[in-house]
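Thread: YprB ribonuclease H-like domain-containing protein, structure

OP (GT): Posting the sequence first so everyone is looking at the same thing. Length is 437 residues per the record. Can we get the structure tokens written out before standup tomorrow? I want them in the notebook alongside the other entries.
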Amino acid sequence: MSGLRERLGRLRQDSSVNPVTPAQPEQQASEQEALSEGQDLPAGFRQIGVEQISNESGQFLLRRIEYSLPYRHGRYDLGELLACAPHLHPIAMRQNQQSEAIDIKRLLFLDTETTGLGVGTGNVPFMIGYGYYTDQSFIVEQTLIRHPGEEKAMLTYLLGRMKDKSHLVTYNGRTFDWPVLVNRFILNGWRRSGAEPGHIDFLHPSRALWRNTLPSCRLSTVEEARLGIQRGHDVPGSLAPALYFQYLSDGNPAHLHGVYAHNEKDILTLASLSVHFGLLLGGEGASDEGIEAAEGEELFRTACWLEQHGAQETAERLFALLNDMEEQGDGSGWSLALAARYKRAGQHDRALKLWRRSAELAEGSTVPKLDAHVELAMYYEHRDKQLIRALTYAEKALELAQRRARLLSDATKRKAERESLLHRVARLRDKVARERK
């Protein structure tokens, strides 16, 4: 608990987003009195553009920010999505099984700040942020409740924003944000009726491309490493609940300034990430400059992802580049997966080059992989009918297996691997002996 207090203290001292000194008791009392009399909101809310909204279900707070297009967030201009949004359709198809065409004005970019981490009924979204496009702008709106009695009014307003939207654009929203909201709708008296919105959840494409090349696939990591977004000082999402509870405790809106800024940036990043994947699927995101700078592993994952989503021409261009990289000796582990792809496609000559290179790398490795030697043994035995070469690779695979056996903790796996190789070597020796007779 002391560590949490220290982190909160540092955030208050270092905050670069509308820094406000903590309210004194007299100021807090006057602000609470102003609210009770229906007067203006406390200055701590008004200075960041928050206003009080009323509807048929009650009151809540709303902050609205308009970004006139063009507006650049990191590497991309958010206005680029106006042209490339339709290219996101394959993502929507895979995530929803069926999906209507993507219309940018029917996308709602959603991110919630909640009182906890689970999706159970005790987790309350105290702030719901979302963004949407108009002809000339990208609009971000953020709703906030000051107490549980305002939740229904906030959700009523959200439903109004959702009524003409076809897809929710999120980062882990399919398994977190949306289930949390569904629970709150039910608890506030709504029942499911009609079709739910579709999802475009960018956590899954991000993991497909970057799970082996980035330290993590957290949104903050992805945006900095791949979107060129530098947040500088930022309130971590994990601290948002504690800051909200501090606000509930003393009524000082300054505690929430960093939460507002963090949520706003998350929504802008969702739009920027949409541009990234839209351009990639449209064949414009795989630029020569970006390709040359990318690691082989990431290129391979990107090519596979594009192939799965129907962008065959761009995928083939990346696969061809990967093959050239391997011939130059720049590739490593992913080359076996690329060779397997060529093998399935009947392109054995291309696979052969990759297996040979991987075999060379394996023989110099501390923990060698056997796959390339086994593939070469099968190729020379069954396709090229060069039994001596097949036997040579099989015997080398057995030697490598014995070398790395000391490093494998799974005794069952070691035994099965060795028995399989012994059987292959024995069969090939028998074939060679019979051929020589």
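GT: Both are above now. Quick notes for whoever picks this up: Residues 411-436 form the longest helix (26 residues). The chain is about 55% helix and 10% strand.
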